[in-house]
């Protein structure tokens, strides 16, 4: 089910960056061609670009290797999806905002706080509809939880505990071996992985943040923890079978731990032969104790909000790869959630009520199949973005410029607090 009728022509979209996120968000056009059409792409990698062009049947005049070439043309689409690497967001965001493109920008805005402000100022000045890929706000789970809090199911919210269980093999893939392993090349772990969560906490608590503290570090994935007899590449390692972070276990064979999306990060053609070559010749076969990673593998953040409400957030690598878990403590009850089930315990009569969001009606088949990532958030983010453009109604955007900037500033403050062992005040965006 779409949010709009099909009486208006599809929203035309230019995709900048046809990697994992760009490809996933663009699936909305395949699920709903009456609502969205991808008419152009800018992607420097030949194979990824060619696969994307074939997937969306893009005409030759809409195919670019460099986003700058696309920006040099007259405006060719209603909207742009910017899904480049974190440090490559500023220039295209400024350029396409100036041309009047409505914009969906993958999170985070930028690894630099001033660049975040510059992007927000540019899109506000241009008057375009602007959304950020904070997909957790859009899930049916989040919206049901928000409804329960609005209905005072646990009275007034006083505090929150929130856990992001990154997962041991996901940490190894993305934050030890992968593109987000070193904050000199991308950003801090808290910004890369957990700006989702800090933003979600701000959305649920529904009041401005005043100050934060934080602790954490890189505890395990260090050279001194490499086992005796280990090799620098998992394909050559004599103790690989005893290592939970073995690249062979994560990527190869019928029982591999990775998803198709993660495998495509290694190679666009995920045959065993190509995966083996990628592990042999690329970064994903490296021993996790011999990488150039420096981002944390565990971190806690404590947050004080206006009115005295508090939240504690834990991000850790040392879990299964599973859904986030939350406890909310209210004046009249508690709420526990895990991405699907929400359990309310009432202090009035000690009763318990459990809600299963998978039982909610009106689930679009496209969401449950091709765009089920992040609890359906990928799908509903795109549904709201496209609907906002079709209706010219920015209220459809749950992750717009003002609160996105505020939650980013919370993240920057928390990382500063960790590095300085200090309590940091957070000023309004």
Short description:
The chain is an alpha/beta fold and 429 residues long.
Sequence-ordered SSE layout with sheet pairings:
Blueprint: E1 11-16, H1 20-31, E2 36-42, H2 46-56, E3 63-64, H3 67-72, E4 79-82, H4 90-98, E5 102-105, H5 113-126, E6 130-132, H6 140-150, E7 157-165, H7 168-176, H8 189-192, H9 195-205, E8 209-217, H10 247-251, H11 260-266, H12 272-281, E9 298-305, E10 310-316, E11 325-330, E12 333-337, E13 341-346, E14 352-356, H13 365-368, H14 377-391, H15 401-420, E15 424-425
Parallel strand pairs: 1-2, 1-4, 2-3, 4-5, 5-6, 7-10
Antiparallel strand pairs: 7-11, 8-9, 8-15, 9-10, 11-12, 12-13, 13-14
Helix pairs in contact: 4-5, 5-15, 9-15
Can you walk me through this structure?
The chain is an alpha/beta fold. It has helices at 20-31, 46-56, 67-72, 90-98, 113-126, 140-150, 168-176, 189-192, 195-205, 247-251, 260-266, 272-281, 365-368, 377-391, 401-420, and strands at residues 11-16, 36-42, 63-64, 79-82, 102-105, 130-132, 157-165, 209-217, 298-305, 310-316, 325-330, 333-337, 341-346, 352-356, 424-425. It has a 9-stranded mixed beta sheet. Helix 4 runs parallel beside helix 5 and helix 9 (195-205) crosses helix 15.
């Amino acid at each position: 089910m779409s949010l709009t009728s099909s009486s208006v022509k599809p929203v035309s979209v230019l995709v900048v960056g046809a990697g994992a996120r760009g490809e996933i968000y663009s699936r909305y056009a395949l699920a709903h061609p009456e609502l969205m059409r991808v008419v152009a792409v800018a992607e420097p990698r030949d194979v990824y670009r060619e696969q994307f062009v074939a997937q969306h049947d893009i005409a030759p005049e809409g195919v670019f290797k460099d986003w700058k070439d696309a920006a040099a043309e007259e405006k060719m689409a209603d909207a742009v999806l910017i899904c480049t690497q974190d440090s490559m967001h500023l220039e295209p965001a400024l350029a396409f905002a100036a041309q009047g493109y409505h914009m969906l920008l993958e999170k985070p805005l930028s690894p630099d706080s001033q660049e975040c402000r510059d992007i927000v100022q540019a899109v506000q000045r241009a008057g375009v509809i602007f959304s950020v890929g904070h997909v957790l706000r859009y899930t049916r789970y989040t919206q049901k939880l928000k409804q329960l809090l609005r209905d005072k199911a646990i009275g007034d919210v006083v505090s929150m505990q929130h856990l992001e269980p990154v997962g041991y093999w996901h940490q190894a893939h993305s934050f030890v071996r992968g593109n987000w392993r070193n904050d000199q090349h991308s950003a801090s772990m808290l910004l890369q992985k957990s700006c989702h969560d800090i933003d979600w906490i701000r959305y649920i608590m529904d009041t401005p943040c005043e100050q934060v503290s934080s602790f954490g570090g890189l505890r395990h994935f260090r050279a001194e923890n490499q086992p005796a007899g280990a090799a620098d590449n998992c394909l050559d390692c004599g103790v690989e079978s005893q290592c939970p972070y073995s690249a062979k276990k994560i990527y190869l064979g019928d029982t591999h731990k990775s998803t198709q999306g993660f495998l495509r990060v290694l190679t666009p053609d995920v045959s065993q032969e190509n995966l083996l070559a990628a592990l042999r010749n690329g970064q994903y076969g490296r021993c996790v104790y011999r990488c150039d990673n420096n981002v944390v593998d565990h971190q806690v953040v404590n947050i004080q909000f206006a009115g005295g409400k508090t939240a504690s957030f834990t991000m850790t690598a040392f879990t299964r790869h599973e859904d986030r878990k939350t406890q909310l403590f209210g004046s009249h009850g508690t709420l526990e959630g895990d991405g699907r089930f929400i359990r309310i315990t009432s202090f009035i009569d000690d009763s318990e009520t459990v809600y299963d969001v998978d039982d909610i009606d009106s689930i679009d088949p496209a969401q449950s199949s091709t765009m089920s990532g992040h609890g359906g958030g990928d799908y509903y983010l795109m549904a709201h973005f496209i609907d906002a453009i079709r209706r010219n109604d920015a209220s459809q955007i749950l992750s717009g410029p003002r609160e996105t900037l505020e939650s980013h500033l919370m993240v920057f403050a928390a990382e500063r607090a960790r590095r300085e062992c200090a309590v940091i005040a957070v000023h309004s965006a």
